[in-house]
Design brief:
The structure holds 2 protein chains of 2 kinds.
Chain A: H1 7-15, H2 20-32, H3 34-51, H4 61-71, H5 85-111, H6 138-161, H7 167-193, H8 198-219
Helix pairs in contact in A: 1-3, 2-3, 5-6, 5-8, 6-8, 7-8
Chain B: H1 5-23, E1 25-44, E2 48-54, E3 58-66, E4 70-74, E5 82-90, E6 101-107, E7 111-116, E8 120-124, E9 129-134, E10 139-141, E11 147-151, E12 157-159, E13 165-169, E14 175-177, E15 180-187, E16 192-206, E17 211-227, E18 232-236, E19 242-248, E20 253-256, E21 263-264, E22 271-277, E23 282-288, E24 293-297
Parallel strand pairs in B: 1-5, 1-7, 2-6, 2-8, 7-9, 8-10, 9-11, 10-12, 11-13, 12-14, 13-15, 14-16, 15-16, 16-17, 17-18, 17-23, 18-24, 19-23, 20-24
Antiparallel strand pairs in B: 1-3, 3-6, 4-5, 19-22, 21-22
The chains are: A mainly alpha, B mainly beta.
Chain lengths: 225, 298
């Protein structure tokens, strides 16, 4: 057996990030290859050892009883490499939705005979306040719907993990999300008034993509970071 | 009433012991023979990590971490060079994850996957691949790795070499680059600077952060610069073979590079600039919603 599975491939299989076909092929190989099976076994043992660790190492009771009484009970933090499996699945699903939506919309926009090549000058000044949503044309609304579905999934994942992240990290993420939201609202408003503007549509989509990417990265952060 | 010496002693111990306990450190020493292109994975809760590429087929990790940290590693069968190695350092508490320092030596051609919370990472001498992920710390990479993926939330990413392939992402942190063959950089509010070096393909994008581009381009280069409100500054060689296509929705464009004047939009908002120098060839596309665009010579 010469074509062994790479270490990254084994890690991805172990972490559950391979697609179904690749995972199936890897398992078939593992059934025949003792060397790769042994490597995978060592990875499993490493994770088991890490997952079996206590969530905290408490000071001896006789020394710190008073201090602990002052601090009160602390919430236990889930740990280990495998803790985010459902989050990864949700994140992967969200990214697929976003990418699929973007591809469809870009294809539709490229087919449009009225799409102008240049951007400047054709945009009217936004008349409506930014916080009032304005209806977008169907193709753009469809694209936005794909983005917002992805965001909803990722946001729920992030909300579930919020308590496991450091407060400073949560603050950074939320501040950045607010910045992204403001940019999306502004681009959206302008796009509602100039829906044929391809450059503006691209900027609008980019704002969403950066927000989705930020959310995806936030859901992949390790606990207590 | 004066406190007794015993009370003072108890108080002193009571106040210093927690600090000493919290800051006590343990040594880390992990060594393993690996192949020259091995995949190395390290998850480490620590304050600082230095990665050094060396000309040996082995991994050597030394340093100190907070006492009570759990250190684990796995990789390959004993007695043979491992093709992969996975290491794990877990601190006993959140504070412990910000303390200590590790020095990790790996083969130059190795692929390194490194994830941590708030460590400042400094990587030098790697020609293989780097996948670096940190939340609050900075990432600095010296040299010319084949490929780099560097992600932080509020730390800065600094590349002082020219990787073949680079993807750098932050939320609020800045990204500083020196060119590369295929470069992508994205932030929400951090600044992006590509100063020096040469790029073949680059996409630099930020929502509100500024973008400065002053790297050299070849005739086949393709560069995209995009922001929502961040200002974009472009410095180009006067005699380069470059086409520039810039457009804003509401922002101003100024051109000090060629004699072409930017065109205003019909409603008096937004501008476009299509200009070139030399024979054209390299293409730079600039898009911003309301950021200013400034183009000038080097």
């Amino acid at each position: 057996m010469t074509d062994h599975l790479s270490f990254d491939h084994l890690c991805d299989l172990h972490d559950g990030t391979l697609d179904a076909g690749a995972a199936s092929a890897a398992r078939q190989h593992l059934a025949l290859c003792d060397s790769c099976a042994e490597q995978l076994s060592s990875l499993v043992m490493l994770e088991n050892a890490a997952s079996a660790l206590p969530a905290a190492i408490a000071p001896p009771d006789d020394l710190w009883a008073d201090i602990r009484a002052e601090l009160g009970p602390k919430r236990e933090v889930r740990r280990g490499f495998g803790g985010g499996r459902s989050v990864r699945h949700l994140a992967a699903a969200a990214v697929l939705i976003a990418v699929g939506s973007s591809v469809i919309t870009v294809a539709m926009m490229r087919r449009s005979p009225h799409a102008p090549d240049q951007v400047a000058g054709s945009v009217e000044t936004p008349q409506a306040p930014l916080h009032v949503p304005v209806a977008l044309p169907a193709s753009l609304a469809s694209e936005e719907s794909g983005f917002t579905r992805s965001i909803d999934v990722l946001q729920r994942s992030l909300d579930e993990r919020r308590d496991s992240l450091a407060p400073s990290t949560v603050e950074i993420v939320e501040r950045s999300l607010r910045v992204a939201d403001a940019a999306i609202a502004e681009a959206r408003d302008a796009l509602a008034r100039d829906p044929a503007n391809r450059a503006l549509a691209r900027l609008f989509a980019s704002n969403y993509e950066r927000k989705i990417d930020l959310l995806k990265r936030a859901t992949e952060l390790a606990p207590r970071t | 009433m004066m406190p007794s010496a015993r009370c003072l002693l108890v108080a002193a111990v009571g106040t210093t012991l927690p600090w000493l306990t919290a800051h006590a450190q343990q040594k880390v020493q992990v060594a393993r023979a690996v192949t020259s292109t091995a995949s190395i994975r390290l998850f480490a809760a620590v304050g600082e990590i230095q990665v050094i590429g060396w000309d040996r087929d082995s991994v050597d990790m030394t340093g100190v971490v907070q006492s009570g940290s759990h250190v684990a590693s796995a990789g390959g069968a004993p007695g043979e060079k491992a093709k992969g190695m996975k290491m794990f350092i877990e601190a006993p508490n959140e504070q412990g994850g910000r303390e200590g320092k590790l020095v990790l030596r790996i083969p130059r051609g190795a692929r390194l996957w490194l994830k941590t919370g708030s460590a400042d990472m400094d990587v030098t001498g790697i020609t293989g691949g780097l996948d670096l992920n940190v939340v609050g710390g900075s990432i600095t990479v010296h040299g010319n790795p084949r490929e780099v993926r560097a992600e932080t939330m509020d730390g800065n990413v600094t590349m002082d070499g020219s990787p073949e392939w680079l993807r750098a992402k932050t939320a609020t942190g800045d990204i500083n680059l020196r060119g590369g063959q295929d470069v992508g950089a994205s932030t929400i509010s951090g600044a992006i600077r590509s100063i020096g070096g040469e790029v073949e393909r680059a996409k630099l994008e930020s929502t509100t952060g500024s973008i400065s581009f002053a790297s050299a381009v070849s005739r086949a280069s393709s560069v995209e610069l995009e922001s929502h409100s961040g200002p974009i500054d472009i410095a180009l060689m006067g005699r380069g073979d470059v086409e520039l296509d810039a457009a804003t929705i509401t922002g101003m464009i100024t051109n000090g590079w060629t004699n072409t004047r930017p065109t205003k939009g019909s409603e008096g908002r937004g501008m476009t600039l299509m200009t070139s120098s030399g024979m054209g060839g390299a293409r730079i596309v600039v898009r911003t919603f309301k950021g200013t665009v400034q183009v000038h010579g080097k």
